[in-house]
Amino acid sequence: MEKVRNSPKDNILKGDLTNDSRFQSVYGKLLNCMYDVVIIYDNEKNKLYYDSDKYFDLFGVKTNFTNLDQWFWHMCSNSVMQEDTELLDIFRSNDIFKRIKSGKYVVEDDIRIKNKEKGYIWIRMVVVFIPNDRLDNIDSVFIMFRNIDNRKRLELDYIYKSQRDSLTHIYNKEYSSSMIKEFLSGVREQNSVYGILDIDDFKNVNDTFGHMAGDVVLKRVADLLFENVDNDDIVGRLSGDEFVFLLKKCGDVEKAKKRIERLLKRIRFEYTEGDETLNIQCSIGAAIVDKDCKETDALYKKADRNLYEAKNYGKNMFIIS
Fold this sequence. Notes:
By secondary structure, this protein is of the alpha+beta class. It contains ten helices and 13 strands.
């Protein structure tokens, strides 16, 4: 997400010190200590200044950019990961003029760039737009890059692990619950279904084959559940052999029933070790999201009650209400 900071009213770069050669030298050294690559664009001369050797060290390509447009199009087409190219829209003329008018001169983002050894690496990009005295155009632009790949990967790995169940790698109870709650808070149409899926007689798997086999079955059920819902649906593991799901767009009740019935059929398989084979199947209790039942606690209680009834009626079935 873009971070924006307003430029101070009396920007030091506009002060008398900018004409002092010693200050310029110290300031340049400071930037080079803080960042791996520093690019300075002079708008009046339409010229780009940077250290091509340092640029090669970070980006892995030999370059000779002369102006901002040339650098911008290279970044969009040859360097930045496709999903991140929209972060470079800040260099388009319309966006620049809007920033000058609003006083939002500083932009900071994390982007991914091509790297020959790692495929893509994360870098921190800090951009400072310096307006001219008339505040109707830019005087110059400072573009600074720092390699943050190791730290960013550790950060993303931590976030991933905090959201995922360690065994099945689908969402854990806490994160799936928070995602469901967030979705339900913005629901306008009542065409979603909250469901709880439980593996029938799962204890038999552990008793017959051991807990390692039980883990294999849990992972297989989680995979099948995840594979047979829509991309924007939510799937998580509650605990043990119990899973939760939210089907966001089911249509009417009959369509919802067909989707859950299809889901139940697809999560059936045989588990075999040696001469022993067990049929793995599940039961589902589901609750329709409507104006009278759209809080997660109420939906859970309703779905759990329906799951209990489905188990009592003979298992390998679903009940929805």
